[in-house]
Amino acid sequence: MSKKLLENEVYSYALGNTFNDVDAGDSLTYTVTLVNGDPLPGFLTLDVGTATLYCSLDYASAGVYDVRIIATDQSGASTDDTFTITVMNTNRAPELVVTPMNPCTPWTRILPLP
Predict the structure, then answer these.
(1) Which CATH architecture has domain 2-20+29-88?
(2) Residue-wise pLDDT tens for the chain (114 aa)?
(3) Cβ distance 2 to 86 under 8 Å?
């Protein structure tokens, strides 16, 4: 699975539809990390109560993130899946970097004496 998302947006993904336990009555708990085992970046959060992954993206989030979801049942048996989240840049409006001269500021010129 792969997701392409735009920066400056908020997304959610319900994990409960991703895994199924064949044992009747078992519930699953979820753990989400980066594939290399590092914790998720701050803009990716897991709500364990609803088993939902939230992505609150900003300009600094742009990039590619390989994510691992681990589903564990009540007896400790687990399985996992990986997917890639690609956060794409969006066009940003130009920013003012230099304040233009105030047109109301009077000009002064000193003339040389004759």
Answers:
(1) Sandwich (2.60)
(2) 677 777 778 888 888 778 888 887 888 889 999 999 999 998 889 998 888 989 888 878 888 899 999 999 999 999 999 988 888 887 777 777 766 666 666 666 666 776
(3) yes
In the numeric block, the tokens 């890639």 are attached to 84
Q: Which residues contact 84 (CB under 8 A, 6 or more apart)?
A: 2, 3, 64, 65, 66, 67
Q: Give the Cβ contact number of residue 13 at 10 Å.
A: 19
Element (H, E) at 47: strand 44-47
Domain ranges of the chain: 2-20+29-88
Q: What are phi and psi of 5, to 5 degrees?
A: -125, 155
Closest CA to 67 of 83, 48, 47: 83
